[in-house]
Amino acid sequence: MTTPRGALIAIEGLDRAGKSTQCDILLNRLRAAGIPAKLQKFPDRTTPIGHMINSYLTTTSTNLDDQSIHLLFSANRWESRDSILSTLQAGTTLLLDRYVYSGIVFSAAKPAEVIPDPKPLSISWCKAPDVGLPRPDIIIFLNIGQEEAEKRAGFGEERYEKREMQEKVRGLFERLRGEGSGSSTDKEDWWVVDAGGSIEEVAGEVWKGVEEGLRRVREGSGEVRSI
Ligand code: NYM
Ligand code: MG
């Protein structure tokens, strides 16, 4: 008998929603339950493309136009595609700390800087370069209010961590999740968790989402779908 494939679980949310904390807890919890698991973070700042992204996010001297940085974020996922698929095929569950969905909403939320054509990037334009990447079995969305996020340590250090931008990101995530008009992802892909509670409370709710993701894989065809 072949090994059943691992689950692909994306954790998404605004900056300071607690994604990285929850990913670490989850990884330990999966392993403690005897489920082989790995964590992959996007952007992956360790690759050459990731170095460019990091310098864009952390310095004001690296200037890239909105389209170019968007495509770099996407390329940074494509360069992991083979390892994502082989990890799943080896029976290892893979947690993604951000994925395509952050890619879409952060780019689409940007105030267009280009003159004389100040149109923001559309969701469909932003989604296009990621079409064909492995699609998560479940996307766990850590939902946090803006005031709570701003209270958390480190907020405001990087590009995009501004209130106005974050509010747009929040609205666009809602649209993607199918809560507004013009959703471009399937509603059943999303598992929304209130991330305003204690770390333990949130971890408990996240775990329920993971169990749902694992169930979908068990009952599914074994195939990894594509975006
Ligand atoms: N981000 C992240 C994007 O703009 N596009 C993407 O494709 C991804 C994966 O990068 N503010 C943004 C969201 C964050 C920033 O992410 C850095 P993190 O998780 O803080 O390292
Ligand atoms: Mg950040």
UniProtKB/TrEMBL annotation:
GO biological process: dTDP biosynthetic process; dTTP biosynthetic process; dUDP biosynthetic process
Broad EC category: transferase
InterPro entries, alphabetized: P-loop_NTPase (IPR027417), Thymidylate_kin-like_dom (IPR039430), Thymidylate_kin_CS (IPR018095), Thymidylate_kinase (IPR018094)
Pathway: Pyrimidine metabolism; dTTP biosynthesis
Ranges of residues in domain Thymidylate kinase-like: 11-203
Keywords in alphabetical order: ATP-binding, Kinase, Nucleotide biosynthesis, Nucleotide-binding, Transferase
Gene Ontology terms: cellular component: cytosol; nucleus
GO molecular function: ATP binding; dTMP kinase activity; nucleoside diphosphate kinase activity
PROSITE patterns, alphabetized: THYMIDYLATE_KINASE
A Pfam family recorded for this sequence: Thymidylate_kin
EC number: 2.7.4.9
Protein family membership: Belongs to the thymidylate kinase family.
HAMAP family: Thymidylate_kinase
Protein name: Thymidylate kinase
Native organism taxonomy: Eukaryota, Fungi, Dikarya, Ascomycota, Pezizomycotina
Protein encoded by which gene: CDC8
